[in-house]
Amino acid sequence: MLSAESVDVAIGHSPANRCALLTDINLTVKPGSVLAVVGPNGAGKTSLLRTLTGEMTPVKGQVLLQGRSLSSWPAEWRAQQLGVLPQQSALTFPFQVNEVVGLGRYPHNTGKRRDREIVAQALAAVDGSHLQSRAYTTLSGGEKQRVHLARVLAQVWEKPAQGERYLLLDEPTSALDLAHQHLILETARYMARQGVGVLVILHDLNLAAHYADWLVMIKGGRLVAAGDAHQVLTPEHIQSVFGIAVTVMPHPQTGRPLIVHQDRSPEEGPLLSTASNRAN
Amino acid sequence: MRERRATLLLLLLLGSLPLVLIQSVGSGIVDIGFTDSLLALAHGAGLPVATPDPQHQLILNAIRWPRTLLAALVGACLAMCGAAMQGLFRNPLADPTLIGVSSGAAVGASVAIVLGATLLAGLSEFVSGYLGGMSGVLNAYLISLFAFTGGFMATLLVYRLGTSSHGTSVGTMLLAGIAINALAAAITNAFSYVADDVALRRITLWRMGSLDGANWQSVTIAATLMTAVLLCLPRYSNALNALLLGESEARHLGVPVERVKWQLIAWTALGVGVAVSVSGVIGFVGLVVPHLVRLMIGPDHRSLMPAAALLGAILLVLADSVSRTVAAPAEIPIGIVTALLGAPFFISLLLQQRQRMLLQ
Predict the structure, then answer these.
(1) What is the ipTM of this complex?
(2) How near does any CA of chain A get to the CA of B299, in Å?
(3) Which CATH superfamily groups domain B2-359?
């Protein structure tokens, strides 16, 4: 299990100019399930992910991996367990796609042939097999995103000697078309069924409702709601956190929440007038 | 597919290197020619061939071979350090000369030359009697050490200035290079001003880059230190590949980023420092060679590093050949040759980038 216990994260050295990014976060990513993190822009979702990966250190509380403090794990073992997909990539060198995916095998010593097999399988999982010999720099934004996801999948493809596997995905669907959005999340769910603990940050509440086993909703660095889709994605929660009025109905096929926005009548004025509501 | 191309290129370069070496020792003011040089080498190896001309033998063994081997080592070292630096800064324009590392090393070397001269002059007859034979070697190692320190401090400064958690800023990096180059020029000029004629000529030749004073002594020193660099840098290939993804991504893959960064800075500073201390400031090799290799076989450091080293060796040996023959009997300092070829190449690189940006 990868968990955050009573975690506070802040930036700024002295208490005077400290800016709190997360306050009193309690969260657990369980192997075998998908946890979706939703919230408005700037709520602290990426900061939460960074704290769980060890990039940010909490000023209070701790992050535990398999019961041990995250920082006590040696870097290589951590790398074999945690596959992290950031929002953006800084890669500008013209690697071939299969070379980029191959970088995910860095923490492992499985030899070239096995690595090549895994790279091919990971690319197939993101519908990227046809891209394998392309230069990374010539791809579209969505294709690049899929390549990085394949890299991260390749990183946690096999069970490590110690510990469990986790996938931490920061908005993996942001640049993808509809079909690929669902493909990626189906792959994430599939990995979860193989025993991987998946945390995924999503903007689309319907995707979160459909694919996640558990959800947390964050606003202003605090946990507002946690639980399954029905408990978290209620019109009241969404109104207070996102400042938008919605109707929640059961999905005709799955019964899960389907969130539809309420159209505003012209007399109510532009949405921006409620900006001050949302800012708190 | 790319792997096969990389292997082919490596084999091609490996095969060409001895040919280029022999061709180079054969060329110069006294034209010995390829076959005669090859025969002389075979004779020296104990093979039953005709004894070569004794004058040719002298030229080859005392002058040409040390010089050519030094050119090969320096070329390999500068090219590999350039490749490593470009991976470290995540930018294909990072070249030891552009960002001020070479001039930092030159400052260190100038300090050592001037200090060394005064140090040795100040030693009593008694001590220098003992050290007499060793003083040349010690002096040379001292210069390498100071050059390394100068190069190291320059790299550190550029790195600190140009890199933040968001990545390297090319602009800041190049500006830092300009600043360091200016500072280094000022200090070296100051030393030139106070130096005596002998030291002055040495300093001046260094700034132009020259293999003129190559002898077996300098080759041995260069060889030991540069071989260490050439053997150790390729071990960072996987880490460098991962670093190109970005620092935090590399950390997620388990790369000990801070440690790797420091070690890379140290190794490249050593490589460039030693190269500068034996042959002066030779520019553009670290920029042109890795770029050419990347164009042919891609940015994977596992093949980029050895290929860059081989190509750098070949190119610098050829440049040395050119510097000795094109204006014979005069010798053009090799730094001039590399700059005359390298600067237009750099300009064409910039034009390509500009075109790419216009298309976006």
Answers:
(1) 0.85
(2) 6
(3) ABC transporter involved in vitamin B12 uptake, BtuC (1.10.3470.10)
